[in-house]
Amino acid sequence: MDRDTIVVVTGLPRSGTSMMMRMLEAGGIPPLTDKVRKANQDNPHGYYEYERVKKLPEDTDWLPLARGKAVKVLAELVKYLPHHHRYKVIFMERDPDEMLESQRKMLVRLGKDTQDIPGVRWKDIFQRYRDAMGRAVEEHPTMDVLYTDYNELLVEPEEGVRRVASFIDGELDTAKMVSVIDQGLYRTRTKD
Questions:
Q1: 6-183 CATH choice from 1.10.3720.10, 3.30.565.10, 3.40.50.300, 3.20.20.10
Q2: Quick check: pTM over 0.85?
């Protein structure tokens, strides 16, 4: 991987972005994180977030810090990444019903109201973000994207890791990447 390339991990909440960040770190790509959001029951290995990302598009001064690293970017903010950097974007996909149920469980644990979760509209929201990602990549001259299915990654981790390593064009430790996929955290399933 070119050391100036920024690896961006994105997706909807509860889609496996933290797991992918952990995999990339195990494989040899350092994460850009400030560790402000601490690990908890919902993400016991950490969230791998960098708070300044949330200020895109106003604040892009931090982007040089991300070169040669992996950074988590909210799906709705990917379109604001400036064109003067090179990006490899890993868009995490997951069964929408599982994402919704996982989000509900997390909100209940936090004591928050779950009445406002869009339910049936969640699939529409997911498709809208996926479509927006496709448009962002088409319109962005320095961005490539790999859609990675969380559910498939858990079933066939070696194949999924191979695709990620090939996409990034890096010499990653694929065995270590596979070893950090924590099957015990796949607690919300809609399919057997």
A1: 3.40.50.300
A2: no
